[in-house]
Amino acid sequence: MASIRRPHSPARAQHLLRHNHPFATASPPSSPLRHASSASSAAAPSSSSSPRKPGHPHPFLFFTRRPLPRFAAFFLLGSFIGLLHLLSHLPLHHTLPANSSSSPHLTHLQQQQQDQPMTQQQQQYLADDAAGGGEEDANKLLIVVTPTRARASQAYYLSRMGQTLRLVRPPVLWVVVEAGKPTPEAALALRRTAVMHRYVGCCDGLNASASASPAVDFRPHQLNAGLEVVENHRLDGVVYFADEEGVYSLPLFDRLRQIRRFGTWPVPTISDGGHDVVLEGPVCKQNQVVGWHTSGDASKLQRFHVAMSGFAFNSTMLWDPRLRSHRAWNSIRHPEMVEQGFQGTTFVEQLVEDESQMEGIPADCSQIMNWHVPFGSESPVYPKGWRATANLDVIIPLK
């Protein structure tokens, strides 16, 4: 009996080819014409390329279709590029030749530097570096606490103090404490100085805003308010009480950054009439306090003869009990019920025990770096908004 064998359909043949069926042909016949065209094309193969065996894909497809080798290849490529970028940013260390004869020009310059005597300023810089001054001290925060009150000369004092702090190398924080509620006039004057500041008020419960008499002293309360700002925010730096009536030199603020614990220096005070000058402060020998400048019999009763603007200390002494004196058992604050002449020494007694824990600035305490010049008269009336509205009548009219 004759058997009839039907060829597979094109869809069936493609399915067998896709799954590598053994009975599948390379090109499933669909028509006699297609067989003839395929046979003629197979009879004349290209001589430039050899036929690839079925079932063996191109090697490049191994990296493009498999995720793990592709990830490994790109990871190695990225690591290599990152290593090249790191090597390009490494510093180059140049070493000098061991034999000085190979660089005669350099040797000649070194010989000139050794023969040339150092100036006094260069010797002072070397002494400061030997004492421990470095890049860390140069970037230490300066916390300047200034008490102020609303009066006719307040604009003058704040503007002068602000322009001085503007020339100091940052970082500097100026804590201005108003005796009473903060005023918009003083806030505007502080903003115009372009100095980083904190403007707070205090003593409002003591009716400081209504009290215009200079006899009422709110300075201890104001300085304590500034200390609370430093202690509450844990500001790490050097605290300095700078009165707004003082005159300060720029080297003073550079010296403050070198203070490790507690530093002091002499301060002259000019009397109200301008005829007498009273010098108050330490006598130093090689950075050690060996005595005190004082005048008058009443001041001899003080333990430390320091002016309020003649010392500075590290802010960590406010919250670290190991750095403070044994007399300070709680918060270090200015005494509010002590006589005005004894306020400075009473506050210093909470910080240090004796002169051995003080640092003289500079090393021999022979430089005057700031002056205390009190304002001669407090009689002018404080104008509201610093604007004169009365007595503006024309005295000499224009013709």
UniProtKB/TrEMBL annotation:
Residues 22-55, 98-126 are annotated as: Disordered. GO terms for molecular function: galactosylgalactosylxylosylprotein 3-beta-glucuronosyltransferase activity; xylosyltransferase activity. The record marks E280 as: Interaction with galactose moiety of substrate glycoprotein. It is an enzyme of class 2 (transferase). The keyword Transport does not apply. Its EC number is 2.4.-.-. GO terms for biological process: cell wall organization; glucuronoxylan biosynthetic process; plant-type secondary cell wall biogenesis; pollen exine formation. Involved in the synthesis of glucuronoxylan hemicellulose in secondary cell walls. Belongs to the glycosyltransferase 43 family. This is Glycosyltransferases. It comes from Aegilops tauschii subsp. strangulata (Goatgrass). The lineage of its organism: Eukaryota, Viridiplantae, Streptophyta, Embryophyta, Tracheophyta.
